[in-house]
Hints:
Layout: H1 7-13, H2 30-51, H3 59-63, E1 66-75, E2 81-82, E3 84-90, E4 110-112, E5 118-121, E6 124-130, E7 138-143, E8 149-156, E9 167-175, H4 181-195, E10 199-204, H5 215-223, H6 227-232, E11 238-247, E12 257-262, E13 272-273, H7 288-297, E14 301-304, H8 313-318, E15 324-326, H9 340-344, E16 352-353, E17 357-358, E18 365-369, H10 376-384, E19 389-391, E20 394-400, E21 408-411, E22 415-425, E23 432-436, E24 439-444, E25 447-448, E26 453-463, E27 467-472, E28 488-490, E29 493-497, H11 505-525, H12 531-554
Helix pairs in contact: 11-12
Amino acid sequence: MYRSRVWFCLLAAxxxxxxxxxxxxxxxxxxLHKHLHARxxxxxxxxxxxxxxxxxxxxxAESQEKCQLTIELIDSQTREPLFGLVRLSNLTTxxxxxxxxxxxxxxxxxxxxxxxxxxxxxxxxQIEALHGIExxxxxxxxxxxxxxxxxxxxxxxxxxxxxxxxxxxxxxxLHLMKMTHAEAVRYLRNVPRAxxxxxxxxxxxxxxxxxxHYITNEIVENSFQGGALKRLSQGPxxxxxxxxxxxxxxxxxxxxxxxxxxxxxxxxxxxxxxxxIMNGEGSDGIPLQxxxxxxxKDGATAIWCHNTYGFEDVxxxxxxxxxxxxxxxxxxxxxxxxxxxxxxxxxxxxxxSTGTDWFLYDFSRVYVPVAEELTPESWLRNLRTGKSYITxxxxxxxxxxxxxxxxxxxxxxxxxxxxxGRAVGRNDFQGLQVIxxxxxxxxxxxxxxxxxxxxxxxxxxxxxESGWLALRIPLEAGKNELDKPLFAHTSPVYLQLNGKSxxxxxxxxxxxDEMKDNLKTIxxxxxxxxxxxxxxxxxVHLDAIANxxxxxxxx
Length: 555
């Protein structure tokens, strides 16, 4: 079996995945989940206060002489002002400074807002600054001892400009909790701007009784009548609505899975399915496929969450119900081989996508080319075509015989293809790899420049069968400034021999076996009010199994 389901027990248990420190795979022991969940709630409350700008400095820092410091970040060429992230250190002690009133990120980074001066200890200071993933990190030293009020302007050098080629970034999975409405609006106004995000989908979800803390539920519900998302979209970042449609057998246990439904006209109800997640309400008798189809009928986009988490992912991909696949949205765990490569090796077209789930804990985003006006609808339309790549720190460019991401190259026989790949990033991403039908076929090392790293490959490849090609950075590529593992991967360029896509029978048989195992689990764990309910859920998997079996017989 290819699944790595266990990691999501950790993900589902944490209420703010952005700030988790443990990546240990956990058992399914219920008491352990409850203990961990209690710890997560305590951390979530503390972090939500800090993220909303309510953090406190130490007693020692409170007693020190203060300075009011205004930090302005600017583009070194255009001189345009930038929001971004700053990290302040006491040069004498080496300690990082806590910034009261500023929105906190991981690793002692804070959002830099020039309209909100910082009150800090008057010490000899080092300031680190950056904006999103497009600019080099800048470092500036200042001696504030004896200074009551100061202002510093820090130019940031751009290392890559995706907008010049019409690439626009999006986060397809975001929720906030334990904030007031005003605090959430401040977070959404400032943090995506500091990260250089062009579009963010804020999504509704339900879980009893925890949902009383989910402030983004209120924001999404109001978005259908205008509300905060419309007002926020008048700024540099656009916002769209969404819903995490999901089922769990237990409060934090695996069930049918989670799927993002984006750019909705209305919520799909029930939002969450099953007595496990809804504190005893309802039954397990509604498949996620029903909600996916209802949303698609209204023009929404369906993106499977969390890589392989859930039992209904394979069935919905085989049945053609999904538009894209998220990975790393809430956890760095999971692998491309678990989902993407298997589906691609059955001839499916699977656009890559990603998000961050609880809070913007990482620089994760998916880039899509949008030549027209940027709206949730235009961005999603291009995502569905497969013209996308995901990253949290490294930019990618990929062409095969002049074709780009999502395109199909027809083959009438053996052919030599010209391949060009390029990557640029602020941190050393340890190289660049070309992937053919799931296997690495080419690797080049990174080159170091003054403020960034790059890698580039040009070579010819002889092919004689259907398949796909994609570009990625290595699986072990180091970490970014937020201490998150670096990733970057393009959606594929597809190869079709005589009009036919690749189809690997061994993969099809593995997926059939997996769906048969899922049927056993659903029968044993599911609580159904009627036989018709159980049949509706099982039918999703049985139809997909029959689909793959028919394809096997045709080969």
